[in-house]
Amino acid sequence: MARTVRPRVFVTRQLPGEALGRLSRLVDLSVWEEELPPSRDTLMAQAALCEGLVTLLTDRVDARLLDCAPNLRAVSNVAVGYDNIDVPACTGRRVAVGNTPGALTETSADFAFALILGLARRVAEADAFVRAGKWKTWSPTLLLGTDVYGATLGIVGPGAIGAAVARRARGFGMRILYVSREPKPALEAQTGARQVDKATLLAEADILTLHVPLTPATKHWVGRAELAAMKPGALLVNTARGGVIDQDALVEALREGRLGGAALDVTQPEPLPPDSPLMTLPNVLLAPHIASASHATRGRMASMAVDNLLAALEGRRPPHCVNP
Ligand code: DGY
Question: What percent of the chain has pLDDT over 90?
């Protein structure tokens, strides 16, 4: 970067891989080294000094923060989702916003499928059972689960990750249904998936998997009415955002046994409070928002985020820019 004064950049956590080393050679870099995110006050104070921010989904970037950051030109999120960022507010202040699509598609789909299998075949319960010394003998009725092979998978949001889950489902001989505004002919040709309306999806899916971004339109997409319309005993898997499900309604449906179980990589809030009923329900499989957490993928995400940031600081449109 041919400048005498290097732009100041704040990164809200250490990132894996080579990306921050590369960034440090080009900008005046400050990295938050703690395990927990910087406080709101710290983030605002840093934003006030910086031309660039590299953020995670834990860091809220809103109009109030932007108003304190007159020199800010770029916010680069290390995630494909960017519901933590007020994009219109950024656009209005000519702040570019970047994200990391593509980098995590297959890794996230692997994990969604791991949750599908883990929930249906009760893997975490089985592990806990053995470790607790409860295993006395082989039993014809021990820890019976649901077959994934041959089951109907309902996909909400057949974008890149949803489609990657569908490809895995095809290998398991699943029948695949999806809801979407647009038909997806390539997905249908590749996986045999069929577009249906919401009512059909809810009524026919044995396993429902969520892959939509969190927006006002998708908030509580799975609410009380949807849970009531689902097939009795169906399984629900969420690797999207916690807010896509009405969690109180979910707890009710699980407690009443209407829903067979839920596997949640994402919740509202994150982390869940220790007294959340989800923590004690046996038919719930929980993970700490790690669908994209492989060494290679997290390194790729960091690298893409740095590429986006550097482009914006050089006055170019970031390669992955979510501003209109
Ligand atoms: C994302 O990228 O939005 C995931 O939730 C975290 O990798």
Answer: 98
Whether 319 maps to a domain, the answer reads no
Q: Give the strand order in the sheet containing 284-286.
A: 194-195, 175-179, 152-156, 207-210, 235-238, 261-264, 284-286
Q: Does residue 79 have its Cβ closer than 6 Å to ligand 1?
A: yes
CA of 130 to the centre of ligand 1 (A): 33
- Residue bearing the CA closest to ligand 1, atom 3: 81
What is the pLDDT, as a whole number, of residue 53?
A: 98
What is the whole-number distance in angstroms between the Cα of residue 249 and the centre of ligand 1? 24
C-beta of 104 in contact with ligand 1 (< 6 A): yes
Q: Which domain holds residue 26?
A: 8-103+295-313
Complex ipTM value: 0.98
Q: How many domains does the chain have?
A: 2
Summarize the confidence of residues 4-15 as an average pLDDT.
95
Does the structure show a pLDDT above 80 at 3?
Answer: no
**Burial of 196 per CB tally in 10 Å (0-12, 13-18, 19+):** middle
